[in-house]
Amino acid sequence: MSFSNFDLHPELLRAIAGAGYENPTPIQSRAIPLVMAGRDVLGAAQTGTGKTAAFALPLLHKLQEQQPAPRGARAPRALVLVPTRELAAQVADSFRELGAHLPQRGVLIFGGVSPKPQIDSLRNGVDIIIATPGRLLDHLQQRAVDLSAINLLVLDEADRMLDMGFIRPIRKLIAALPKVRQSLLFSATFSNEIRELARGLLRNPESIDIAPRNAPIALVDHRVYHVESGDKHPLLTRILFDGGKRQSLVFTRTKHGANRLQQRLEKDGLRCAAIHGNKSQGARTRALDDFKQGRIQVLVATDIAARGLDIEDMPHVVNFELPHVPEDYVHRIGRTGRAGCSGEAVSLVSRDERDRLRAIEKMLGRQIPVAA
């Protein structure tokens, strides 16, 4: 199957060809025809499987077919909600790439930056809003945005939004939308709470489940080191140096822990940066760009980076500390083993984390091998 089978707008096919995409992924093959037909969709797929294009392509096609109003009177017609600033930026990049030859205009809305440019863009007229819930709700309450013309709603990584406490802002935003609309809910995994949300949000949805619920990435080699808490840092340093110049994404549970670990690894001679919620958007963007460009070897992150980090060929993920929630293990290791490439996920497990390890293994349905 090729993208031409979907009867997409010619300018979308032109953008797809220019981006080098050849054949649709499984989630794209199943979701695009349903969205173009006007169906509500509940879609589950692992990260790195083309989930964004699965909703961006049909959404752009439908907006183009709707004959937008003149620019001065243009009200937003599509809304994409995501949990983090990083994911919002990457979704916006995908829309820009795929819609490069179309007249639709979008605005990127998230916190941590000045709201004025966002408000100016909204006043000038946009077709698509890509936003995190908190900042968009601020704009709504200040009457800086009108959501009454939204007819396409996408909730991306909805389970993470619930984990981050966004359920009340989401419900307030949805209450401001027209009741008659098309709604799509996508995520790497679905908790029972998400399925309950979907029942109240979606109308007779078509369910797509590309990957087994909470399944680990098949191409990832998982290993566990049992180690005392005080010995984690030297073991991590040895693992990172043994890996040569291989880039590594290292997860901690807390922001302060990420900062401390970054400082200790830098003293060990490793080029390192930290990314977490207390960092400014500029600092987070610079750290991610330095990591992608190979200027730093190690990126230390909290679970804010478990979603929405689009890093090609990420070979190595380390859990310096296991996550509080077992499902977050899947999201962390989802940074590696993407797009057919193999990867490695290493977990350093102290005595007080063994209950967390057992919970993760129960969720996965198998034991994680212990490193020799």
Examine the secondary-structure arrangement and name the CATH architecture of the largest domain. 3-Layer(aba) Sandwich
Protein structure class = alpha/beta
Question: What is CATH's topology name of the largest domain?
Answer: Rossmann fold
The average pLDDT is: 86
The CATH homologous superfamily of the largest domain is termed P-loop containing nucleotide triphosphate hydrolases
Estimate percent helicity.
25-40%
Q: Approximately how much beta-strand content do the residues carry?
A: 15-25%
Radius of gyration, CA atoms, in whole angstroms: 21 Å
Biggest beta-sheet profile: 7 strands, parallel
Q: What's the helix-strand series?
A: HHEHEHEHEHEHHEHEEHEHEHEEHEH
Instruction: Give the tally of β-strands.
Output: 13
What is the number of helical segments per DSSP (H or I, 4+ residues)? Answer: 14
Poorly predicted runs are: none
Please state the overall shape, judged from the principal axes of the Cα atoms. Answer: globular
Strand order within the widest beta sheet: 3-4-2-5-6-1-7
Query: Termini distance?
Result: 45 Å
CATH class of the largest domain: Alpha Beta
How many domain units? 2
